[in-house]
Design goal:
Elements (H helix, E strand, L loop, with lengths): L1 H21 L2 H57 L2 H77 L1 H43 L14 H5 L2 H23 L19
Helix pairs in contact: 2-3
Amino acid sequence: MGIFSRLATLIKSNLNDLISRAEDPEKMLQQVTTEMESQLVEAKKQVAVSIADEKRLAKQAEQEMANAAEWERRAMLAIKAGDDVLAKEALTRKKEHDGLAAGYKEQWQKQKQAVDSLKTALRLLNTKIEEAKRKKNVLIARKKRAEAQQAIYNTMNNLNNVSAFDTFDRMAQKIDKMEAEAEAGAESTSSTAATRSSTGSISSRRPPEPTTSCSPSSERWASRRPRRRRLLLRRCASKARAARAPQRLSPRCPRPSKTSSPQPSPS
């Protein structure tokens, strides 16, 4: 029995802890307020039924009192007519209705007191429900403020962590490296564009080669025969080699003349 009782206690404690963790104050307050409003609606229905019973008893008492007055009038008429038997019967019926009227009146008074008590309780319940609603709003506001403070506290703890600042420093270094690479790429692109523009300007300043008779586009070339064209090509080639020969030499070394050097005189 000891083991089973301890096991039952353990299960109950775990269930209570689970329920406590699952409870949301805002939802619980909303549920309690909803239940109180439902109870208020039921109480209003009960008060309405009690008021209806009170009015019904009052009408029955008035009716019995009216019946008693009617039988009293008939008894008086019978006495005037000299009919004592009818007068006695009428008085007996009057007495019965007087008793019923007294009973209904007593019940009506008790019901009226009960209705007054229910109305007072209903007003008190309505006041408590309104107070509970206002208190619920205050409690929900306090809960939200506590949650906001807890969130700010958690954020501050995360900011105080060293790893967060290390991450910021590492990202700053990475961004500095990216900026340096971008600046280096921009400088390289600008220098390449400047070199290309200078090369293009130099090549544009070269004079065009004159069109000679050796060029296939000249008129004299078109008028030559194939054999004459070959001879002309050979002449042009020899002229071109002769024209390029001085350029191959260094400017500091003059081209030797074709004349033979003077022989030294014998001493």
